[in-house]
Write a structure and sequence with these properties.
With 475 residues, the protein is α/β, with parallel strands linked by helices. The chain has 13 helices and 22 strands. The mean pLDDT is 97. Its EC number is 1.8.1.4.
Length: 475
């Protein structure tokens, strides 16, 4: 016998579980279906972000940063630490525990908000009067009937043609988070977010890391001045980044991986490594959704086609997050999930794509919101720029981390903030001030006039805003 719901959400990643909770808060009878399993076969809601993405990678970054500080920075604080060793198994176990805490937290939130959770793979069966029949394939198969369906099935790592992931030698983000011992030599293909973060983790722990990037520029989506500053820091740390390469044959053997490639000069090269992490983007996950059963429209990439409100071509069917257009970011998925739940309730849910922040959690961290200087130039927008280095910030000196800067870009006529770009300590936290400011269409002068606590890293934000008008006080 089928179970009837007002709203059924397929997928419990950031977009899905947030959409389910918000819909329940709005008075709907809600179900959420998710197939992720933990090592014991139990439910593990949270999607890629919680299980093999945002959360576990930050746990490993934190552990590796502690190790790096103990080995290289404690002495300058007067702390003696000899023979510091890393227990990789314990580090991985801690990461797994952090993931479990987040999984359990989502299950608790479902219970608190009276969201019915079904563990298994959700797929369309057919359209029925007043809605859709959705099948749950799992240990306890179920048939649900929904008036409204929200699809939030996320994305999967993109493999290189002819080089499938075996998660032993050739690793996706999943395998990169489960390496059991520090590899002597680690190769990465792709210098995007995942590549840089995972490369940073294992370099700090002692691996010889080389990143091969096909593009001729480093971090092409990042403001050029910020990207150059970041690359200088990574080069100094010993992270080897080769740009403009063309990857050829990849041989996966018992003792590791051999990568043939052509460098930027056109010279044939070979890179031998114990492990290879492939970080060349992600693809929308619509596998097993049975979209054809109801005529759900997909594009050439396999993404679900939606309009500006996340509506699909089917009445009562919506899609959010990585499985639709736009940046593949957890917080973008969350905002879309909330907006869709509110639209179903007849409200006016809203997502401003122009103020979605981006973060790379390396050391130094890189964060930005709005347009880059090169984008403004290409668009013919007249602008003013202001920068302030962390080298001149008192709190950064006290932390012992003065790498990087804050950069403001403002309209030359109105002074409205058009973009803020940060490379340096705690950039991921500092960027939120810029997001708030841009949402309220603030000017650089507004930030320059706001009192910031002293000493704090956020003073660098104020000073960069002052620099737009060429009147910094501390540099």
């Amino acid at each position: 016998m089928s179970k009837a719901f007002d709203v059924v959400v397929i997928g419990a990643g950031p977009g899905g579980y947030i959409a389910a909770i918000r819909a329940a808060q709005l008075g709907f009878n809600v179900a959420c279906i998710d197939e992720w399993k933990n090592d014991k076969g139990g439910p593990a809601p949270g999607g890629t972000c919680t299980n093999v993405g945002c959360i576990p990678s930050k746990a490993l970054l934190q552990s590796s940063e502690h190790f790096d500080h103990a080995n290289h920075h404690f002495a300058e604080h007067g702390i003696s630490a000899k023979d510091v060793k890393m227990d990789v198994a314990k580090m991985i176990a801690r990461k797994d525990n952090v993931v479990k805490q987040n999984n359990d937290g989502i299950l608790y939130l479902f219970k608190k908000n009276k969201v019915s959770f079904f563990h298994g793979r959700g797929s369309f069966a057919k359209a029925v009067e007043g809605g859709y029949e959705v099948q749950v394939a799992g240990d306890k198969p179920e048939t649900l009937v929904a008036k409204q369906v929200i699809i939030a099935t996320g994305s999967n790592a993109r493999a290189l043609p002819g080089t499938p992931f075996d998660e032993e030698n050739v690793l996706s983000n999943d395998g990169a988070l489960r390496i059991g011992a520090v590899p002597k030599k680690l190769a990465l293909i792709g210098s995007g977010v995942i590549g840089l973060e995972m490369g940073s983790v294992w370099r700090r722990l002692g691996a010889d890391v080389t990143i091969l990037e096909g593009l001729p520029t480093f971090l092409g989506a990042v403001d050029e001045q910020i990207a150059k500053e970041a690359k200088k820091a990574f080069d100094k740390q010993g992270l080897k980044i080769e740009l403009g390469v063309k990857v050829g044959d990849i041989k996966n053997g018992k003792k590791g991986v051999s990568i043939a490639y052509t460098n930027a000069k056109g010279e044939a090269q070979t890179l031998d490594a114990d492990k290879l992490i492939v970080s060349v983007g992600r693809v929308p996950n619509t596998n097993g959704l049975n979209a054809e059963a109801v005529g759900l429209q997909l594009d050439e990439r396999g993404a679900i086609v939606v309009d500006g409100d996340c509506k699909t071509n089917l009445p009562g069917v919506w899609a959010v997050g990585d499985v639709v257009r736009g940046p593949m970011l957890a917080h973008k998925a969350e905002e879309e999930g909330v907006a869709v739940a509110e639209r179903i309730a007849g409200q006016h849910g809203h997502v401003n794509f122009n103020t979605i922040p981006w973060v790379i959690y390396t050391s130094p961290e890189i964060a930005w919101v709005g347009r880059t200087e090169q984008q403004l130039k290409a668009d013919g927008v007249k602008y003013k720029a202001g920068t302030f280095p962390f080298l001149a910030n008192g709190r950064a000196r006290a932390l012992g981390d003065t790498t990087g800067m804050v950069k403001f870009l403002a309209d030359a006529t109105t002074d409205e903030i058009l973009g803020v770009h940060i490379v340096g300590p705690m950039a991921s936290e500092l960027i939120s001030e810029a997001v708030v400011a841009m949402e309220f269409k603030a000017s650089a002068e507004d930030i320059a006039r706001i009192c910031h606590a002293h000493p704090s890293l956020s003073e660098a934000t104020k000073e960069a805003a002052l620099a737009v008008d060429k009147r910094t006080l501390n540099f």
